[in-house]
Amino acid sequence: MPLELRIPEWIALGFFLYLAVATLLLPLPADRKRRAIARAILISAFILVTAGLDGVTAARARDGLPLAYLLLGYWLPAHLVQRTNPKLEEVLLEFDCRLFGAGGLARFAKRAPRLVIELLELAYLLCYPVLPLGFIWLVFRGFPEQGDRFWTAVLLAGFCCYGLLPWLATRAPRAIEDTSPRRRSSIRVLNLHILDRASVQLNTFPSGHTAASLAAALVVRKHLWSAGAVLVVIAFGIAIGSVVGRYHYAADAIAGAAVALAAFALSGVLI
Q: In this structure, what is the dihedral angle of CA atoms 61, 62, 64, 68, given to the nearest 10 degrees?
C-alpha cells in the first residue's frame, strides 16, 4: 500500500530524526547515545508504519497520535542533557528582575489575594487538557478537516521549544528562587505533584506550554471564534501563571508566544 504521511507526521518524523542526529553531535556517554538514537529511530519507524495503515480505525488513530508524538518529543530531548547552563539562567533571571524588580514576583505571590493566586495556578494546570480539548472542540463542532492544521501548528510550536532543550537547558526558576509558598494555593500543590512525577525537571526556552497552547487556540479561533477566544484567554493565563508561579521565566513565555504566532502562520502555508 502507498505510504502517505500527513503534514503533522512529516513534522514529527523530521523532529525525531533531528534528535537522532543531535545525539551524535552532543558529548554524551556512548550508552546514552545508543539508547537515545534507538528511541528516536523506534518512534520514527512507528510513524512510518502507522502512516501505511488503511481503514477508518487507523485513520482515526492517526488523528490523535500527534498528541503522543508531542509528549514523546518533550521527554526524549531531556535524555540528551548532561548539565544545565548557569550563565543562561543568570540572563533569564536578570531579565525577570528588570521587568518586575528585585523580588517583585515573590512579593506579589505573598501579597496578592489568594483567589488570584489560585486562578493563576489553575490556568497553569490547564496546560495539560487544553490541547485535546481544542482538538475535540474543533472536530465535534464541524471542522474535522482542520485536524491536520491544528496538529501542524501545535507540533511546530512544541517541537521548536523542545528541540532547543539539549542546547539551552536550564533549571526552572522555582528550583533556584525561594518563591510562593505552597500553603497559599492548594492547586499549586497539585501542580508541583504533577511536575515532580511527569516533568523532565528541566526548563524549556521558549516555553513549550505557552507555545503549544497558544498555537492550538489560534487555530481553533480561526474557525470557532467564541471557543477560540476562550482558549486564547486560557493560553495567556497559562503564560502568566507559569511566570508568576515560577515554573518559567518571563523570557520563556514571551518567546513561546512568538513561536506560537510563527507556527500558526506557517501551518496556514503548509496545509
A: 100
Is residue 240 a contact partner of residue 214, using CB atoms and an 8 Å limit?
Answer: no
Give residue 4's pLDDT band: very low, low, confident or very high (50, 70, 90): confident
The pTM for the full model equals: 0.94
Cα-based angle 233, 225, 124 (whole degrees, multiple of 5): 20
- DSSP labels, 179-237: -S-GGG-HHHHHHHHHHHHHS-S-B-SS-HHHHHHHHHHHHHHHH-HHHHHHHHHHHHH
Cell of 90: 543568570
Cis peptide before 206 (omega within 30 of 0): yes
pLDDT digits (tens, 9 = 90+) for 45-93: 999 999 988 888 999 999 999 999 999 999 999 999 999 999 999 999 9
Q: How far apart are CA 48 and CA 3, in angstroms?
A: 8
In this prediction, residue 52 carries a pLDDT of 87
Instruction: In whole angstroms, give the CA distance from residue 154 to residue 131.
Output: 8
CA 68 – CA 256 distance, rounded (Å): 20
Determine the Cα–Cα distance for residues 123 and 233; give it in Å rounded to an integer.
Answer: 9
Euclidean distance between CA atoms 157 and 76, whole angstroms: 16
Where does residue 238 rank: exposed (0-12), middle (13-18), buried (19+ CB within 10 A)? buried
d(CA 51, CA 45): 10
Supply angle C-alpha 227, 230, 232, rounded to 5. 110
Check residue 102 and report its DSSP letter.
T
